[in-house]
Amino acid sequence: MPSAMSSPAAPNEPVPPDPSDAPSKASSSKASSETSGQRVPDPAPLVRVENLKKRFAHHGQSVEVLRGVSLEIARGEMVCVVGPSGAGKSTLLHLLGTLDLPSGGVIRYEGIDVTALPPRKLASFRNEKLGFVFQFHHLLPDFDAVENVMMPGMIRGSGRAKLRRRASELLEEVGLAHRLSHRPGELSGGEQQRVALARALVLDPSLILADEPTGNLDSATSEAIHKLMFALNESRGTTFLVVTHSRDLAARMPRVVSMRDGRVEQDERRPAEPMEPSRLESSPAQTSTEEPSAAAS
Predict the structure, then answer these.
(1) DSSP character for 257?
(2) d(Cα 223, Cα 238) in Å, to the nearest integer?
(3) Are 96 and 47 within 8 A, CB to CB?
(4) If residue 221 lies in a helix (H) or strand (E), which one and from where to where?
(5) Which domains does the chain have, with CATH numbers?
(6) What is the reported pLDDT for 134?
(7) Most buried of 9, 52, 257, 258 (most Cβ within 10 A)?
(8) Closest of 7, 10, 17 to residue 53, by C-alpha
């Protein structure tokens, strides 16, 4: 799993967090509780983002990429984030994935302010609670499909035998039972993304964060991956937040968050457009005629 995602093209040096941007605490005891990573007493959605800001230093100037984003994500939701290039979509996903810290604001998962966790606890949280799917699959070329899916569990120190069974079951679930021993270079682009999805699910995370998951795939293969994500949400109740430029995917999502200039411009909830087939076993392992990838990078 990669430890960083692409930031906006120009800015590249983070500016230290500004304490004045953080929301005020109701009491000193509550502030102490949140700083120690303890759960706040009032009920919370799966994710709550409060006044999130991100600045980068560029040529001696501060460039504001996120300008006070606030939103909530409920358990089991399918959320799509859209907007023009430079709107802050990937930066938002990057921060929600705890791969970087905000310059201001708070990110709470199940009531816990993860921006206050020490680095080791934050890394453990990321490994166990979040799954990632990127535009580039980031599979390890020298390992087969099962071993790639096992990687997050191996990082956590899970038992190999149990982990191998779990990885094999997930690959079967995403339609790759016939590809368990294949390395990435022997798989097509759509199959590689299915392996990446299985890897993201191996520790049963609370949230899958997907950044342009079908950006490098043809239309038929993209359609199959879209159906697979909906099927996993339906069968497992897995929460998805997907950053995409795909109009087809955005049109089918029950919730679309539109961003522009570092802010949420619109947050639209609507009935999900039906996607058939809805069951995993009906979603084909490969719907395009593309050849296996020549390289595994």
Answers:
(1) E
(2) 19
(3) yes
(4) helix 219-236
(5) 29-282 (3.40.50.300)
(6) 86
(7) 52
(8) 17
Q: Which residues of the chain have pLDDT under 50?
A: 1-15, 19-20, 22-43, 277-291, 293-297
Q: Is 218 helix (H, G, I), strand (E, B) or coil?
A: coil
Whole-angstrom Cα distance, residue 268 to residue 95? Answer: 22
If residue 259 lies in a helix (H) or strand (E), which one and from where to where? strand 255-260
Residues 77/78/83/85 CA torsion (nearest 10 deg): 110
What's the CA gap between 10 and 7, in Å, rounded? Answer: 8
The structure's pTM equals 0.75
pLDDT tens for 139-180 read 999 999 999 999 999 988 888 999 999 999 999 988 999 999
CA dihedral 238, 242, 246, 249 (to 10 degrees): 20
C-beta of residue 17 within 8 angstroms of C-beta of residue 103: yes
pLDDT of 274 reads 58
User: The tokens 């604001």 sit on which residue?
Assistant: 105
Rounded to 10 degrees, the C-alpha dihedral 234/191/281/127 comes to: -40
Tokens of 270: 């609507």
Q: Which residue has the tokens 């990127």?
A: 134
Residues 87-111: pLDDT tens digits? 999 999 999 999 999 999 999 999 9
Question: 99 with 131: CB under 8 angstroms?
Answer: no
